[in-house]
Recover the amino acids of this structure.
């Protein structure tokens, strides 16, 4: 059950942050580089910011760069909001469905184990591929817009 539980938690976190962002509410406490009282951002923003800044060792430089881009680009903000929902809702559905299959259905233990450990990563791989293609398309369109009109 560790993987479906993680997927449920991930979906819940993204959903909560997306709702707070959509309502225009302020951060109730510091969330990564978003200070307490600042306008909320989609949860996917925080995940991207933290993972890339830590994994690439760019820390503050990357955080400042992604913040500048988020502030400057309506298309970038829209893309992150859409990605947030694209990951949040299916994460809740996949996590709940796998949990139900594993605990509620009368399935052989080995099959249940395979479902619990196999379905969430398979779903995530598919979502990563779709996300990559979508982000590449959005960033290409953003670049085209900026090339035409730098004030956009």
């Amino acid at each position: 059950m560790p993987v479906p539980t993680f997927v449920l938690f991930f979906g819940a976190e993204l959903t909560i942050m997306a709702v707070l962002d959509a309502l225009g509410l302020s951060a109730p406490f510091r969330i990564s580089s978003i200070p307490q009282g600042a306008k909320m951002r989609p949860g996917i923003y925080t995940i991207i910011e933290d993972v890339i800044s830590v994994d690439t060792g760019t820390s503050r430089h990357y955080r400042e760069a992604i913040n500048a881009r988020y502030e400057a680009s309506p298309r970038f903000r829209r893309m992150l909001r859409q990605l947030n929902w694209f990951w949040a809702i299916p994460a809740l559905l996949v996590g709940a469905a796998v949990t139900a299959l594993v605990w509620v259905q009368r399935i052989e233990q080995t099959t249940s184990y395979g479902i619990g450990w196999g379905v969430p990563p398979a779903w995530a791989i598919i979502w990563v591929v779709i996300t990559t293609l979508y982000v590449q398309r959005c960033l290409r369109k953003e670049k085209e817009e900026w090339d035409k009109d730098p004030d956009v």
Q: What stands out?
A: The two ends are 47 Å apart (CA to CA). The chain has a mean pLDDT of 91. The longest helix spans residues 109-148. Residues 131 and 137 are 10 Å apart (CA to CA).
